[in-house]
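agent> Task received from the user: take the single chain below, predict its 3D structure, and emit structure tokens. No templates, no multimer pairing.
agent> Plan: (1) validate residues, (2) run structure prediction, (3) serialize to tokens, (4) report one or two observations.
agent> Step 1 OK, no nonstandard residues flagged.
tool_call: predict_structure(input=
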Amino acid sequence: MAQDIKIAVTGAGGRMGRTLVRLIAETEGLALSGGIEAEGSPHLGSDLGTLAGLAKPLGIAATSDALSVIKDADALVDFSMPEASLEFAALAAQARIVHVIGTTGFADEDLPKIEAAARHATIIKAGNMSLGVNLLAALARQAAKALGPEWDIEILEMHHRHKIDAPSGTALLLGQAAAEGRGVGLGHNSERGRDGITGARAPGKIGFASLRGGSVVGEHDVIFATEHERIVLRHVAEDRSIFARGALKAAAWGQGTNGQKRGPGLFDMADVLGIE
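)
tool_result: status=success, residues=276
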């Protein structure tokens, strides 16, 4: 009989952390092994089951000792801050475990550090863990490839008022997909918001616009526009559990299949879902 996959969670007292704890408790084949909270968090020492609103305590307390949690886990699911995720990636590499990174807001110089960790750990990193969003990215890539340069591409996203980065990681994921479809790099072919007398839209640019307000989980439109017609590809997230479910699917995928452990490397949700 196969053993349960032992999963640890970062930010275990936060909204996503509590969702992950509940889903792990409900999912056959998964077992919660630990939860990490930052130094000074009011949740330190609290039972993770109680924090997540489960009927019974789990007997596992939130701790700031990341090393002790990671060394006892098969996989770490991480929706935290970029600086913290880089530290967790290094620890995951030491422990040779799976690290699922749903954190967004990384700087360009952060990627080599994650790639270095992925030489020893199985790292699955995605700006969005949902199946629907990753299918949307595949469609955006295909549409950008099929449509000519006379089609403008704009990406509009909206999130809750508490989100701290813009454009969202999902918006950048979609923009990257569109840029790949066109065979160009996103960095030199994007416009991040407009203000004042900006002049006419530059041909070939991929535009981003970010809205924030209320409790919106996530809405993303990829707009292709040309003379006299417009195509809009849209995804609406109605519950943040879709991201948690995707992350747990990634954690299980990272363990490999048929007794064969998946080797180290840097992967994304397209790999997990088998999307070309």
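agent> Step 4: summary for the user.
The CA atoms of residues 22 and 52 lie 6 Å apart.
agent> Done.
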